[in-house]
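Sequence, please.
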C-alpha cells in the first residue's frame, strides 16, 4: 500500500514517509505542507485515498499452472 501512496503523493520524500510511519495525522500534515493546500483539503485527499484502498478487491496470489 505504501507504493500506491507514493504514487498518489509523489512530492513526499523518503524522509517524509519515515516521519509519517503509518500515522494519518502525519500524512495529512505532510500533504498540506508539500502541496500548499489547506488542512481540510489534505484530510479529504487522505480520506478519499484510504476509502479507495479499502474498496479495492483483494487479489489472490497467482497459482502456477500444472503441466501434464
Amino acid at each position: 500500500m505504501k507504493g500506491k501512496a507514493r504514487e498518489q503523493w509523489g512530492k513526499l520524500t523518503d524522509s517524509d514517509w519515515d516521519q509519517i510511519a503509518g500515522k494519518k495525522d502525519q500524512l495529512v500534515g505532510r500533504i498540506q505542507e508539500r502541496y500548499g493546500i489547506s488542512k481540510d483539503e489534505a484530510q479529504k485527499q487522505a480520506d478519499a485515498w484510504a476509502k479507495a484502498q479499502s474498496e479495492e478487491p483483494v487479489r489472490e496470489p497467482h497459482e502456477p499452472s500444472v503441466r501434464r
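Residues 39-55 form the longest helix (17 residues).
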